[in-house]
């Protein structure tokens, strides 16, 4: 039923693949709306315990489709804030708030918003040929989709400024070296490796993983006291899951646990 994305669910894993390869999966309004609809389904579907985000073709995502704008750039004073408010910010928040691990499989070039959407995900695998480009500065814009928030946290201010101000291409290898991503995979193996990891995570106590994600996502914004309290609150919730009970029971009985994600 989708035209601009490919969406499927199998073995507890939702696969959402951007599908406008002729323009390197850049976002037009229609693709934004389909991605939003897929997130709605993921949230409703109890079967889904891990999300894999990737792209079709040779690119991951080239950011905003510059030929199919949400906001007319030739207008005397176009308000790009509208496009950010309506589409990019809600997408970044949806990824961060999704109560499950989100794996991004960056299958090729990732530019503009397309370079920052992966940074909002929890684990980033990149194809050896992938490149990360903060292309915004080349057209007079500011990194959006959380770029100026995620980059310094992931790679430090010096590298963040270099990427954002110079807009150079960072290869998958150097992205790995600088701590921007988690793994580099061969191009033809990337998707299967990402799905393998996702399927294995989907057998874990995924409600607990959602709490871990929440704690880590807030860690740089809290002082220690406040954060210890958040950990306590999340541990309280985790301790009430069926999976915690199962994890302890299996450990005591020296058998393999069977987690259900609740
Ligand atoms: O405006 C708002 O709503 C606010 C939100 C802004 C968010 C943003 O993301 S702003 C940043 C937008 N993105 C860019 O500035 C990146 C533009 N693209 C590039 O710089 C290059 O395409 C790449 C470095 C990503 C890849 O280069 P390369 O040489 O591998 O491929 P290519 O030949 O440039 O691109 C292949 C095709 O995709 C080409 O079409 P064609 O000639 O084969 O018909 C190209 O025009 C198209 N394409 C690539 N990126 C975009 C695009 N078409 C529309 N919009 C794009 N962003």
From TrEMBL:
SUPFAM superfamilies with a match to the protein in the record = ClpP/crotonase (SSF52096)
Any one Pfam family match given in the protein's UniProt record, by short name: ECH_1
Q: Name one GO molecular function term.
A: isomerase activity
**What is the uppermost EC class here?**
isomerase
Provide the protein name: 2-(1,2-epoxy-1,2-dihydrophenyl)acetyl-CoA isomerase
InterPro entries associated with the record: ClpP/crotonase-like_dom_sf, Enoyl-CoA_hydra/iso, Enoyl-CoA_hydra_C, PaaB1
**Enzyme Commission no:** 5.3.3.18
Q: Which UniProt keywords apply?
A: Isomerase, Lyase
Which Gene3D superfamilies does this UniProt record tie to the protein?
2-enoyl-CoA Hydratase, Chain A, domain 1, Lyase 2-enoyl-coa Hydratase, Chain A, domain 2
Family stated for the protein in its record: Belongs to the enoyl-CoA hydratase/isomerase family.
Transmembrane residue ranges: none
Q: Which domain of life does the protein's organism represent?
A: Bacteria
């Amino acid at each position: 039923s989708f035209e601009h994305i490919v969406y499927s669910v199998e073995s507890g894993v939702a696969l959402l693949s951007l599908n406008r390869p002729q323009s390197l999966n850049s976002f037009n309004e229609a693709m934004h709306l389909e991605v939003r609809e897929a997130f709605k389904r993921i949230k409703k579907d109890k079967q889904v315990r891990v999300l894999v985000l990737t792209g079709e073709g040779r690119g991951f995502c080239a950011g905003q489709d510059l030929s199919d704008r949400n906001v007319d750039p030739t207008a005397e004073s176009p308000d790009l804030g509208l496009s950010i408010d309506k589409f990019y910010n809600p997408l970044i928040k949806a990824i961060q708030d999704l109560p499950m691990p989100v794996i991004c499989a960056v299958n090729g070039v990732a530019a503009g918003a397309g370079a920052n959407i992966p940074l909002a995900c929890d684990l980033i695998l990149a194809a050896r040929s992938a490149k990360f480009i903060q292309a915004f500065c080349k057209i007079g814009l500011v990194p959006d989709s959380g770029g100026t928030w995620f980059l310094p946290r992931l790679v430090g201010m010096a590298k963040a400024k270099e990427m954002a101000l110079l807009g150079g291409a960072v290869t998958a290898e150097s992205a790995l070296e600088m701590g921007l991503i988690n793994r580099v995979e061969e191009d033809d193996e990337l998707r299967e490796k990402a799905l393998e990891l996702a399927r294995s995570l989907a057998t874990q106590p995924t409600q607990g993983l959602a709490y871990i994600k929440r704690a880590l996502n807030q860690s740089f914004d809290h002082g220690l006291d406040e954060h210890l309290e958040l950990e306590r609150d999340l541990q309280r919730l985790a301790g009430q899951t069926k999976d915690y009970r199962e994890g302890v029971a299996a450990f005591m009985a020296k058998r393999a646990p069977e987690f259900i994600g609740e």
